[in-house]
């Protein structure tokens, strides 16, 4: 890949653009991320740095004959047809771990705000109802149980923080964590089956990618397993929860509340039933969009592109099987280049 044309369907941070320029890349910026706008720009493009505003489909990939890498700024790549990319020997990368601290802080903020009823207290004080303090509505988290659906980097760090700082008991369900790892963590986390996770948790936080296996993983059955005073937190992907079932559970006070940063349709459509519920906190898929994290995500995504252009295997390749084809046989691992 001697040519270095990089397409940005959406703007990224100046620090990352500067990195690309210093590496000799020509940056092509799309006016908007709509497919009909992006497709004509794909001719002669060698790399795409991708945020969340567009899905790279098989149709889009078919227009990108020179494309070598799709580099996601975030940890997930559910807006990329990885199979279609692999068919054309296009490397797909993500930024696993870059947003861990930011998402953990956001999830923890939702847990604290819900348990302490901060939104309700704020509204009451503004309306002159100072006497609400006598209702003792907030609850302590110390000694309560946090359930983690998914025990990757974010779930693990949230569990560690809640255990050490808030003295919470930690349960987890993740079939991809092997026995050796589970045994090593047994002093502070207990791995349980799916039903026990939901029925035993005071707070349940979701940390899984959106796949066919996890789509609507949390439905009416799972919500019915939860305690009436339990809280549900989702900072992963909206499609993991069946939103109709959650709206029904919240409306009927079958669970105490929810903190949602992600939704099955984004932006949230006007008039969505979540808007009228007083026991849910809604944030606009912003857990990783701190001032610091957006720079980390953009620069890491740019570095993946630069690494490939310079003959190195980039970090966090989602489809490593393409590295075995002739197109990429020349690539070296970073330690091999030293």
Task: Please give a handful of descriptors for the protein shown.
five-stranded parallel β-sheet, alpha/beta, seven-stranded parallel β-sheet, 2 domains, 338 residues, Rossmann fold, 12 helices
Which H/E pattern describes the elements? Answer: EHEHEHEHEHHEHEHEHEHEHEEH
Structural class: alpha/beta
CATH architecture of the largest domain: 3-Layer(aba) Sandwich
User: What name goes with the CATH superfamily of the largest domain?
Assistant: NAD(P)-binding Rossmann-like Domain
- pLDDT average, as an integer? 96
The termini sit apart by 21 Å
Helix proportion range: 25-40%
Radius of gyration: 22 Å
> Which residues form runs of ≥5 with pLDDT under 50?
none
Q: Just give the CATH class of the largest domain.
A: Alpha Beta
Structural overview:
It contains 12 helices and 12 strands. The protein is an alpha/beta fold and 338 residues long. The protein has 2 domains: 138 residues, NAD(P)-binding Rossmann-like Domain (Rossmann fold), CATH 3.40.50; 183 residues, 3-Layer(aba) Sandwich (Rossmann fold), CATH 3.40.50. The relative contact order is 0.14.
Describe, in short, the structure shown.
With 338 residues, this protein is of the alpha/beta class. 33% of the residues lie in helices and 14% in strands.
